[in-house]
Amino acid sequence: MHDLESKAIELLALCKDKGFRLATAESCTGGGIAAALTDIPGSSSVFERGFVTYSNDSKEELLGVPKTLIDIEGAVSEAVARAMAEGALAHSHADMAVSVTGVAGPDGGTSAKPVGLVHFAVAQHHRVTVHRERRFDPLLGREGIRRESAILALNFLIETVQNAPD
Question: Which parts of the chain span the membrane according to its record (predicted)?
């Protein structure tokens, strides 16, 4: 079984057991996390909605990420990842939301934000939004960075659900 599929199955089962609903806010993964979840039959009992906010305008319009935050921090940043997850939570009926924003390449990287830099955040109601940063090897290529980012996001959600109070 493909690792992405097995992680999606594991997450959906955990969420179903705890009664959690999920939302996603994806930039560099382009909906890959939502696709992995919705590939699993019965996922509609857990997966509430997904936002693919590839452009800065979509981050602002669909998730409420402040333009000034994007202008100051850049779309690929901890602050924007946190705002995306919180925006997905606020604009859905989910209990938990994950966001992903990064540079998948092969172009677009800088010395400060190289190809392979990805920020993740998980937001929950009445909890502090948590963040992770990962620097994937650019040799993975665009497809590899996107796939590994989706897997990491699912693992991040699995850990969060496992540690959530019942």
Answer: none
